[in-house]
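Q: I'm writing up a methods section and want to include an example of the input and output format. Could you take the sequence below and give the corresponding predicted structure tokens, formatted cleanly so I can copy it straight into the document?
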Amino acid sequence: METVEQTHEAHVLVVILSIQGHINPLLQFSKRLFSKGIKVRLAITTSVAKSMHTKVCPISFETFSDGYDDGFKKEDGIESYLERSKLVGSQTLGDLIKKLERLGNPISCVVYDSFYPWVLDVAKQFNLPGASFFTQSCAVCNIYYHVQQGLLKVPVDSPTVSIPGLPLLAIADLPSFVSVYGSHPGVRTIILNQFSNIDKADWLLFNTFDRLEDEVVKWMSNLWPIKTVGPTVPSIYLDKRIEKDKDYGLDLFDPRSEICMNWLNKRETNSVIYVSFGSTASVAEEQMKEIAWALKGGNKYFLWVVRESEKRKLPSDFAEEVWEKGLVVQWCPQLEVLSHKAVGCFVTHCGWNSTLESLCLGIPMVELPQWSDQTTNAKFVEDEWEVGLRTKVDENGISRREEIEVCIREVTEGEKGKEMRMKCDKWKQLAKEAVDEGGSSDKNIEEFIRSMLCTIR
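A: Here is the clean output for your methods example:
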């Protein structure tokens, strides 16, 4: 397949939300554009610039203020953040676009995180086309769209929900902001605001691939100009078309790579359980203790990522007591860990990035979804893609140690686990095909670039 010509003057500004799970896919998509001859600049908030750990990255960074240059704190309140970030961000991002034009680097197109819908309004002020980038699955976005449009009434008053393009969903399969009415109202507003001006966007880009969400992609394509451009995982793990692209390149936490990899190198193939709940999920203290006891009582080595803010929830002296079989770290290079031969199972919250990474690297999952889109992702992981087991919860919403142990044992040693590994190999190959030359996501990126060039000629 021929690629787009690389003699144009296209210059894309990619505006990134200051959350690790949103930074990674947008940064990786930017690398894809750059590899195809597009000039790309990343616009990150001042607070991210202050705290990030960067590696070699071919893409230029610019900063803008969202009004929280020292970082957002929970006590500030989500509602205040929404108002202030839009007010301040609109001004400073507009100033950045004007500055780049004065310096002879005019912007041709703006790609922005869908959680920042106001960025599209800024782009249109400068007569620039805009592409909204969705960092969650098409299935989850479809559910939120139905809520935002009033097509799915909340609170949900039936045991199951039928939505076009999706399998029949139980209440527990819905995103937490839908299933638990009134929970986290500020975050729910951000989620639903993604669709507030969606009809004004020139393109909608999704971090998924056609074969993974075939039915819902087809249904959504009848509504909007959507393009699947994922999975946005560093090239070395998939198609290897971007040279030396082995990690995302921007961390908000110190990944402690050497400690983790040295420890894994001493373990045998498929002997380690990797446990991580991402960069934002907060696990209940009772649940943390149940996980700890399950890992301690099992017969497997484990590597557990416990962020500094979560450490207090562990049983006292836990890390010291399990040092012979377990390593507890504050952060790790997840892609390197998941691709290591020693890792045989991923105990995960089912955040979308972690789910895609596990699929792309062929690792079966034990699922402990906590909130947001994770419950819906878990439904698909277990029932649609058949690469994981979701732990059952008791009347208090807690997965007990015995349940966790059973699921880990089944995934690593049981017949279901063998079937899952076969399915994992299938999805790993399909993900590679999607991003490789001529694959569905590769074609969509090429089409996006061609369409964008038509708007600036």
